[in-house]
């Protein structure tokens, strides 16, 4: 499958099965995803693999943020969660926003690679990404920020919807204005 075909076939999978890629399979895909454009080669990102009880830990942190007891079931919606972390580096050349763009690029490329490898993926974000309890559960440092999680699992045999139409490229692509 070409890169163009992979991008056109990509969709979000809100429901997945209990199957998940192994750690070794994931390492190979992360290695490839890490090839995104990275000004000055800062590698301003890292990923955290959450499986099994790790998801319960995250669920407790989410509920703590909400002022509730117990563990939220949200992290249990997939057998593997991959936390996407922007890990900012000091640089006079590369601003913070550009470093965050690199981390986002790694996550997006990884989601494409996972999809192409046959896994269902959904990138979840939201207010929890900025919650102190959630940051502590992930062991984030002062120079780090959680951008969300890739929820990964097997693609169900039958699934409704989820397919997006392509964008009207002419609407979003324009020449430089003439003055």
Largest sheet properties: 4 strands, antiparallel
> What is the name of the CATH architecture?
3-Layer(aba) Sandwich
Under CATH, the homologous superfamily reads NADH Oxidase
CATH top level label: Alpha Beta
* Percent of residues in β-strands: 15-25%
Mean pLDDT: 93
- Determine the N-to-C terminus distance: 43 Å
CATH fold annotation: NADH Oxidase
Low-confidence stretches: none
The ordered string of helix (H) and strand (E) elements is: HHEHEHEHEH
Overall 3D geometry?
globular
Radius of gyration: 18 Å
Q: Strands across the major sheet, in which order? A: 1-2-4-3
Class from secondary-structure proportions: alpha+beta
The count of helical stretches stands at 6
What would you note in describing this structure?
The structure is a single chain. The termini are far apart. This protein has helices at residues 3-9, 23-33, 53-66, 96-116, 132-137, 169-172, and strands at 45-51, 80-87, 119-124, 144-154. The protein is built from six helices and four strands. The chain has a four-stranded antiparallel beta sheet. It is of the alpha+beta class and 179 residues long. The protein has one domain: NADH Oxidase. The mean pLDDT is 93.
């Amino acid at each position: 499958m070409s890169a163009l075909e992979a991008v056109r076939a990509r969709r979000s999978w809100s429901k997945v099965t209990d199957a998940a890629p192994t750690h070794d399979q994931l390492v190979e895909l992360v290695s490839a995803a890490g090839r995104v454009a990275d000004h000055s080669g800062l590698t301003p990102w890292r990923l955290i693999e959450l499986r099994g009880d790790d998801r319960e830990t995250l669920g407790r942190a989410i509920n703590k943020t909400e002022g509730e007891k117990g563990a939220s079931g949200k992290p249990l919606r997939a057998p593997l969660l991959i936390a996407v972390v922007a890990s900012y580096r000091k640089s006079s050349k590369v601003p913070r926003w550009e470093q965050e763009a690199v981390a986002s690029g790694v996550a997006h490329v990884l989601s494409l690679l996972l999809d192409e490898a046959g896994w269902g993926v959904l990138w979840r974000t939201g207010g929890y990404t900025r919650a102190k309890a959630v940051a502590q559960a992930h062991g984030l440092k002062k120079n780090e920020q959680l951008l969300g999680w890739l929820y990964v699992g097997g693609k169900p045999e039958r699934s409704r919807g989820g397919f997006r139409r392509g964008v009207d490229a002419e609407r979003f692509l324009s020449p430089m204005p003439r003055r």
